[in-house]
Amino acid sequence: MVEQPPAVPVRHERWRRAIEPALLVATLTALVVGGVAWFAGAPGVADRCWTIGTVSAIVPSVWWVAKALRRGGIGVDLIAVLSLIGTLLVGEYLAGALVAVMVGTGRSLDAAASRRASKDLQSLIDRAPRSSRRRVGEDVEIVPIDAIRAGDVLVVGPGETVPVDGWVTSGEAVLDESALTGEPMHVSHRTGEAVRSGVVNAGDVFEMEGGATAEDSTYAGVVRLARDAAAESAPVVRLADQVAAWFVPVALTLAAVAWWMSGSADRAVAVLVVATPCPLLLAAPVAIVSGLSRASRIGVVIRGGGALENLGHARTLVMDKTGTITTGRPTGTDIVAAPGLDPVEVLRLAAAADQVSPHVIAAALVQEARMRSLTLSYPTDVVEEAGTGVTATVDGHRVTVGARQLPPDASAWARAVFARSALDGAVVVWVTVDGRLAGAVQLVDPLRRDAPRTLRRLRSAGLNRLVMLTGDRPEPAEEIGTVLGLDLVCAQQTPSDKVAGVRRERESAVTVMVGDGVNDAPALAAATVGVAMGARGSTASSEAADIVLTTDRLDRLADAMEIARRSRRIAVESAAAGMGLSLLAMGCAAVGLLAPAVGALLQEAIDVAVILNALRAMSGGRARETVVPARTEEMLNRFSAEHDAMRDKLNLLRDTAQLVAAGEDPRRTVMLLRSTDDFLTGTLLPHEQAEETQLYPALAAPLGSGEATATMSRMHAEIERLGRRLHAHRRQIDQDGELAPDRSEDLLACLYGLYALLRLHFVQEEENYFVLTEPEERCGESPR
């Protein structure tokens, strides 16, 4: 059974949250009421009010000093306590009230800046099953999960969570394993295959044999990992305490020397009053709080000043793949139809049949069809079989859609699709119409359009090591690592593997971990700074993280890093300037140039200057936004839509090349070559020419110069050259009536060259230009 986290730290945190704002209210009220009484001609009442305010600050300050001493350190609160007591002893009540307000303000701001959310594992605990159905002979009983032992036969119904580790004994288990691996695709397990606790049954009822107790199973281990890793995250030491090691002895020594040389305790008190480290207590928290506010306005919730400070000097970034640098939503990359059939019609029939299925792949097919504005008929006689797919009647045809294994007697085109999908790391959805294999749709989890640009920004912001840890297979993981230029890619990672990987990176540098999903929660808690993609991510990952990106945009992390670095720099600058002025004031007080009350007012003036400087963190600290004029934005949207419309047609180039290479069907080869040339000359090349003459000149101003599109213009020229060359081949074929063998090699070079060049060109334009105008809710999505 999963243990409940202790409640003592929560109660301590609630007490702290209550006392610090109460102290500020009490001291400020005492100061104001005393000031009113003094102006009203009642100095005695004023002194009593100021004394109350001073005493109200002394009590908690003594507690904070004692707490620091128990930890083996001396905090700057010691100076505040001595100055507060000193003002009462020498009768400088106004000075004491002013110092009390400084202390109350500093503690409240510091608490707001550095308070970190507790690593509440409640959502993880809630997902853990409390009971399970156990079969004994012909009887099925519900038993507590603690009663399950190895060897028990368990019955897992649709939508239920697998209670313990074990293996399938009857039926086929279709499981949603995203809680452990982060991968959105459902996985089928046949009889005898192992299953892990914490995954959800996405298919029909199946039976399994328990292989371990709940406590020794995978999911309980995930909870323990998150709890243990969170316990390692020590609170960040306040900037003030880092300076206290030298500032406290200097202030006390100077106060003692001033008392000894003058013989007056007033001078010592005056030194202590101006030595009250409010620039430290205020400057850093104000700058940090300003940074937190600035980040929240762009959709980045940072749960404490410590996380912001750590983010500001992070050097290593560890990322999950699915939902972090990919969209986490399967998308169709290629639709292939059997010879003589229309790929678009195959997609329409498949999506129509899948409309009533809750499967993630079915949703992807329906979305693919809707993006193409296809009209979907409502299916009838729908039958969904776990691990096989959906069979339904659509427009009089019996359609079956599913990710089945390729039959041994499959046609050549189907074998080619299967081989290509293995290389691309794609899932193949086969479509059968009236008992005949009609087509296939390849699905991948596409890279976010903003991922390459964001990772470049993160490197320029100071991250010198980028690591990806994913539960996915090595092939797609390594392909993404190559595209993004990652320093290390680790595939097939379990939650414990991810925690170990994060801990290794954390030993050598301040480490940021980005992920979403329950499976990422332990790794997020183990990192110096955990960042959750919270717009669609699980509650558990958000609770285990120090930072939550509320908008589903990875580039906000780069913005947050720049805000963090700027806020930290301003905090240090403000504290240093304030402490320098305080040291100067201490010298003046030591030689008798400042009385305690005047020193307190001077210290307040220093504080105001420090706060005004620290408030600069409220602005700036984010990459310059590229302002795109409305007319240019319209053009970007138009050309982006044309890309989406042409993407499938690019496959004509590859399909034609395959026919030319095979040399088996000359008539169909010539027909397809003519269709390809018509597409190039009638659609694609005019599109590229319009981009060159209309879009690229319009982008010169937003991007800073015409050089920003120079390399893309060179690619346009190469596309134009190869297109004309292909058209020359088509004219020659029209003249001769057939494809001459001595022209096949050059024709293949043109076809494959254009296919590769156009695919790369489309991606580059989408990542560099079209992403400039995409709304936040779609920025993470990459088109097919």
UniProtKB/TrEMBL annotation:
Residues 128-226 form the P-type ATPase A domain. Residues 637-770 form the Hemerythrin-like domain. Keywords: ATP-binding, Cell membrane, Membrane, Metal-binding, Nucleotide-binding, Translocase, Transmembrane, Transmembrane helix. InterPro entries: ATPase_P-typ_cyto_dom_N (IPR023299), ATPase_P-typ_P_site (IPR018303), ATPase_P-typ_TM_dom_sf (IPR023298), ATPase_P-typ_transduc_dom_A_sf (IPR008250), ATPase_P-type_domA (IPR059000), Cation_Transport_ATPase_IB (IPR051014), HAD-like_sf (IPR036412), HAD_sf (IPR023214). It is found in: Cell membrane. The keyword S-adenosyl-L-methionine does not apply. PROSITE patterns: ATPASE_E1_E2. The chain crosses the membrane at residues 22-42, 49-66, 78-106, 243-262, 268-289. It is a multi-pass membrane protein. Signal peptide: none annotated. Its main location: membrane. Belongs to the cation transport ATPase (P-type) (TC 3.A.3) family. Type IB subfamily. This is Heavy metal translocating P-type ATPase.
